[in-house]
Amino acid sequence: MTKTKNELQVQLEIIRNSIRHFPNGASMEDILAHSNLNLNERTLQRRLSKLEREFNEIKVTGGSKATRYHLNVIEAESKPSLLFPLSDSGQEILNFVSQALHQRKPVSYNRDFLDQYQPNITAYLSPDDRQKLEKIGKTRNSEEPAGTFAREILNRLLIDLSWNSSRLEGNTYSLLDTQQLIAFGKSAAGKSARDAQMILNHKEAIEFLVETAGEIGFNRYTIMNLHGLLANNLLADPAAVGRLRTIEVGISNSVFIHLGIPQLISEIFDQILEKATAIKNPFERAFFVTVHLPYLQPFDDVNKRVSRLAGVSGKSWGGVDFRRIVFQV
User: Fold this and answer.
1) pTM (2 decimals)?
2) By CB distance 3.0 to 4.6 Å, which of 25, 35, 44, 73 could disulfide with 18?
3) pLDDT per residue as tens digits for the range 211-230
4) DSSP of 195-249, one letter per residue?
5) DSSP per residue over 266-280, as a string?
6) Nearest one of 258, 230, 253 to 242, comparing CA atoms
7) Which of residues 30 and 298 earns the better pLDDT score?
């Protein structure tokens, strides 16, 4: 698949996901604001036409300035939506997890997956992947103190990372809404207080990472503080904020069985942090954390958000712009 075709597929997926956030239909202005795509009006119209005529994934209502774009739910939701082309093994996994619940065999946490990982010997990212990420993320002198570059781009980092991480959780704020909330404290009309809280929590957590970049790392102090900031006012049990899980949890539409023994959760949590600390490559380290923290689910909730921000903690800030890597901005 050519690079151009791959980029087109990514754009179509982003547009599709943006329309999904407007149940009553999205205007072109809505799509551009929510997606943050750098497209002119004519190019966006071509992308929308492709989704409508070639893929039958959207429908158009109204006319002229009243034109609205809607997801064709039957077509768009009946098959998995792919952001990137998959390998044969990746497609096999997708097909497996797309089965109906009654066709899946319940599985529990497999500690061997963690035990078998040997820092700086085992690698989830290939050498080519690590080299590509290093090239994308390299900003300048990697010997600068941790957090130097992050502090210089803090305002943009707060908005981009807060918005992108939040929308992965179903947050309905647009990029512009997020900017208004972070810069001026102005909540978006018609949006839930929970969505605003989620974004403001990201802001606090990112500021914590930047301001204490020389002190933090893959340790309990950092991760517990990240959870405390990200989960603030979002959990049913306020006492669970910044604390490891003591209850059993489940994931909807999944047959995965999480660990339920607090002592074992605590032990494996420390093992993850120890191995993450030992990994020298910042990209491999970030990937390791975003895999193993959500898999363990050490907290009542907000695990994926913690793992995403943990991936850019500690020495990872020195000379590397993870914002460019993760979100290609």
Assistant:
1) 0.70
2) 35
3) 887 788 899 999 999 999 99
4) HHHHHHHHHHHHHHHHHTTTT--SSHHHHHHHHHHHSTTTSSSGGGTTS---S--
5) HHHHHHHHHHHHH--
6) 230
7) 298
